[in-house]
Amino acid sequence: KTNGSGVLDWTTVASGGLVHLGTSTVSSNVSDIAVDYFSSSYKIHKIYGFLSTTTSGQDYHIQWRNNGSRDASAVYTTTIGTNLQGNGSSSHTNDYGAWNSGSMQFVFGTHNNNTTPARFEMTIYNAMGTTYNSGIHFISSYYRSTDNTVAVSTGAMNFNDGGSNTFEGLKFYPSAGSWDSGEIRVYGVVDS
After folding, report:
1. What contacts 74, CB < 8 A, 6 or more positions away?
2. How far apart are CA 171 and CA 168, in angstroms?
3. Is the pTM above the cut of 0.85?
4. Distance of CA 149 to the CA centre of its chain
């Protein structure tokens, strides 16, 4: 850009991007993982991860964490679509949802092998603010041992508490058994 007289004027370009806030790694059997890395410096957070369990056919859940404790209030509203590809040309779609449940599912009936962990990406909105309800968008991919398919799930969750809570993190847990391997990385999205 120029300064109005035709002379170049150098300005700082907005940086944007992601700031790494923390990583949780699973190397032995644990029943849940607390990922308490959210920061009030960011309106949006990103999570990237992979997890596997000790027991086949498990669903993966998350709950908000508030002041060091999980929030199991029956105010999680979730909608999820899953595309399943079987061996050969067989494929089908399943839709899931929950109204005012105590958690959010993001993986359904996964295999218990750490060579084929469930992989996921989440975008977290307003975790540390009270202006509006906190929410999550996600995509996950995994092998389902329950019906021998590869699945891709996409979904969203709205936390219908009226925006009155702030959350420092999430609790990840399987429907039964424990985690046997995995990693979850949390980033803050820089305002640009």
Report:
1. 100, 101, 102
2. 10
3. yes
4. 22
At residue 11, the pLDDT reads: 59
3-state secondary structure of 30: strand
181 residue type, one letter = S
Tokens 């709950």 map to which residue? Answer: 63
CA 7 to chain centre: 48
Structure-token pair, residue 48: 């990237």
* Sign for the pseudo-dihedral over CA of 169, 139, 104, 60: negative
The token pair that represents 134 in the structure block: 């906190």
Which mean pLDDT values do the consecutive 10-residue runs of the chain (192 residues) have? 65 74 93 95 96 90 91 90 82 85 89 82 92 92 84 91 84 93 96 78
Residue 66: exposed, middle, or buried by beta-carbon count in 10 A (0-12, 13-18, 19+)? middle
List the beta strands (DSSP E) in the chain: 18-26, 33-35, 44-53, 58-66, 69-71, 76-86, 91-101, 104-110, 118-125, 135-144, 149-159, 169-174, 179-189
